[in-house]
């Protein structure tokens, strides 16, 4: 049973969403501010966190930043309909997805299940050994899908599940262009709709992480209006 941490200062959301998730078979812990959630995470990390952005004591952005220092567990942000800047910033900081309020609880459940399935398959190695799961080396890049490990020029890079899958999809065929639609198919279930900006934000975050170990990283090329391409160095 997956443990989901639900962090929001709206008690109605905590009550209704936790009831829905528990009915779907999840174990749910609820918190009404970021600091309380962080204190709990320091004792025992959940399998996934669903975070509101605007909260007292510690907001969702600060909590995510603390989490990413120690964990790559999947994180979904809950955002208000006008928080477009916050959505993009959250994805750049390492969130895997966002859901706008007011939201369909069924949609939230599907996004949670999609991320957990990918995370579990990678973490447990319960993936058939195929071209997609073999260790891949492309120039300075080394990826081990079964261990969810990435190294660039011999230096480890910590990626979220979504970032890992996007980099893998691009690096599998150097020089070939992947459209945003193709990358959406890689990163999300068919039942989940995302827009182009979500993929762009993930790519920006991915580049930032790679440049944290190499300022000259330029292997991911943007082809404006078309998509992205991995160029082997």
Strand residues, percent = 15-25%
Q: How much helicity do the residues have?
A: 40-55%
Number of helices: 8
Query: What is the 3D shape?
Result: globular
Rg value = 18 Å
Count of DSSP E strands? 12
Query: What's the average pLDDT?
Result: 85
Largest sheet features: 5 strands, parallel
User: Which secondary-structure class do the elements indicate?
Assistant: alpha/beta
End-to-end separation in angstroms reads 43 Å
Uncertain ranges: none
For the biggest β-sheet, the strand order reads 2-1-3-4-5
Characterization of this structure:
This protein is α/β, with parallel strands linked by helices. A hairpin with a 3-residue loop joins strand 11 and strand 12 (227-230). The model has no long low-confidence stretch (mean pLDDT 85). It has helices spanning 11-23, 34-43, 60-68, 84-93, 105-124, 161-171, 180-187, 196-211, and strands spanning 3-7, 27-31, 48-52, 75-79, 97-100, 136-138, 141-144, 149-152, 155-157, 177-179, 220-223, 227-230. The protein is built from eight helices and twelve strands.
